[in-house]
Amino acid sequence: MIDIGLSKMALIGAVALIVIGPEKLPRVARTVGTLLGKAQRYVSDVKAEVNRSMELDELKKMKDTVENAARDVHNTIQTSASEFEKDWAEATDTASAALQDQTTVVPAYKHPGKNWRLKRGAVPQWYKAKSGVRTKAQSGAARVARYRPQKFH
Does the keyword Protein transport apply (predicted)? Predict the structure, then answer.
């Protein structure tokens, strides 16, 4: 705001002491300080309001440009979609006409003869039994009970 040096402050303080008097000086200084604080707050509020209005204008301009761009993209997509539909309709009409000219032969269904429930492993069962590979799921408790030593009566 105002650029006041130390020497100017001392001169103002000396003049204020002479004019006002030493007993009223603290109250006057307090009043001047509060008024300066209010003035600074008012100036900062005005600056903030101006900045907000400038940002609002910028945002409105940006919104308008984005809306225009979105409208342009929508129109472009709509025209290209309608052209594609027209081309597709022409292509399918020619293809369907060509297909109607040909006689369609549908082959008869033949069962593949597979049993999908039957598991066909590559390793023979006798090899799994010999090497001790587990072929059936068994809980841990059942496995412990299976290998527990038997009591002789």
Answer: yes
The pLDDT assigned to 74 comes to 94
Dihedral Cα 98, 104, 110, 112, nearest 10 deg: 0
Is the pTM higher than 0.70?
no
Write the single-letter amino acid at 86. K
pLDDT at 11: 82
pLDDT digits 0-9 by tens, 65-88: 999 999 999 999 999 999 999 998
